[in-house]
Structures are given as C-alpha cells and as structure tokens.
Structure to design on (263 residues):
C-alpha cells in the first residue's frame, strides 16, 4: 500500500471500480458462480428488508463508528463475491492488496423464545407470504421485528466477524462492506434473511394463521358456551314459571269450589 504523510494514499472511486471489475473477471474464469455485489443508484438497499438490515447494524454503538467505512467499498464494487447460507456469510473483498481478502461472518439462529413471541404477536396481522416478503405489514410488526434483542434482526453478540486482512479492528472496512452487501443482496431476494437467521418462512406464515384460527375457535367456543348457559337459565326460569302458573291455577280453582259450596 502507498502512503502519503503517514496516511494511506487516496484512491479515486473510478480507479477502485476498475480494479474491482478486473478482479471479478479474473475470478469468474476460475469460478463462474461467483456473485459480486453491484450497487445501482444512490441507495445501497431499497427494499424494506434490505434497509432494515442496514439500519439495524447502524443502530448499535458497537458498530456505528466503524460500519460506515464499508459504504464506499461496497459502492465501488469491492465485494467481488458474496454467498449467504444458513447462519453463514462468506465473501471476497478487493482491498489494497492484489489478492482479495476473505471475509466470513457467522450469525446465530433466532432463539426459540423470541421466535415464539413473534409468531404469537403476528397472529392475524400477516395476510400472505407475498406481503411479508414485500414488507407490507402493520407498523406494530415493524417495531416488533426490529426491536433490539427481541426482534428478528441479530445483535452484535450474535454476529462473529473474521477477515484475512492485516487490520487489527474486529470490524474492518472489508467486513463492513460485506455487511452492507448483505442488505443490498436482500433487495434481490428478501428470503435470504430468513435463511440466514435459520427461520422457516413458510412455518412463520402457517404458525401465525393457525394461531389466529385457534384464537377465533376459542372465542367461538366461549360464545357458544355463553349462549348455552343463557338457554339453560331461560329454560330453568321457564320451568319455574310454569310450575308457579300451575300452582296459581290450582289455588284459584280451589277458591271457586269453596265459594260454590258455601253458596
């Protein structure tokens, strides 16, 4: 790396993009399946899931001072390859060295306790899988999903970072670029978020629907019991009234008989 006055020499964005593009072309000859992150436009992520992923990372003090270092890197196409699987992110990032750095990030699966709370709160509030993927759900769910430590998004404690670069920092600019790249990748396929957090998206939908159905069924049973109870009460009062009516009729008859005899 070239230094000027003790600081790394500034490399123009256009030059970095050109270098990254050459690296991608070189890598594709060895592995046609590599998947570079390409940012088009001003925003790194545009969909609800992509934006929420990036905002979650930026909201933690552990990351807020360092994650910004990755923005220019991901914009310049430095993330040459990004692969997302269950609980794991691997990437190749073009840095100052001619050889790309290897980045690996591990994400802990969503805890069972949080999962149960979320599915319970989602009951009756998600109409379809499509609405969930598109982020079209009530504001209450937005707050639920993004709650620190209680939502769907990982906390810094649930994220393990590793990079082959010589930077001593836990979150170097290469790792930061990859994390932003994940947000951008979710624009193309939001379901990657659920795969990353080891969440069965179909199960989430079916669970919320079944919980809503069970709730409605329970309400229906309670209502039925109330109707039955009221019917029983009415029936009971009806019997009592009938007994009283017969008793009064009998008493009136006896009185008439007595009057007739006295006459």
């Amino acid at each position: 790396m070239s230094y000027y006055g003790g600081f790394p020499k500034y490399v123009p964005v256009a030059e970095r993009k050109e270098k990254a593009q050459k690296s991608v072309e070189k890598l594709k000859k060895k592995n046609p399946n590599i998947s570079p992150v390409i940012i088009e436009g001003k925003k790194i992520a545009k969909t609800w899931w992509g934006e929420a992923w990036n905002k979650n990372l930026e909201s933690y003090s552990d990351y807020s001072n360092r994650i910004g270092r990755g923005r220019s890197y991901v914009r310049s196409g430095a993330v040459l390859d990004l692969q997302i699987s269950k609980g794991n992110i691997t990437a190749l990032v073009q840095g100052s060295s001619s050889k790309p750095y290897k980045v690996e990030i591990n994400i802990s699966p969503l805890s069972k306790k949080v999962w149960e709370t979320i599915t319970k709160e989602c009951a009756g509030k998600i109409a379809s899988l499509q609405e969930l993927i598109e982020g079209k759900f009530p504001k209450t769910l937005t707050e639920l999903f993004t709650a620190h430590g209680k939502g769907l998004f990982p906390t810094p404690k649930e994220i393990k970072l590793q990079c082959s670069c010589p930077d001593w920092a836990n979150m170097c600019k290469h790792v930061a670029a990859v994390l932003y790249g994940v947000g951008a990748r979710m624009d193309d396929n939001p379901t990657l978020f659920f795969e990353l957090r080891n969440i069965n998206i179909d199960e989430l939908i079916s669970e919320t629907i079944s919980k809503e159905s069970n709730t409605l069924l329970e309400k229906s049973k309670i209502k039925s019991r109330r109707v039955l109870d009221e019917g029983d009460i009415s029936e009971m009062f009806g019997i009592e009234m009938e007994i009283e009516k017969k008793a009064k009729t009998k008493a009136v008859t006896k009185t008439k008989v007595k009057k007739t005899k006295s006459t």
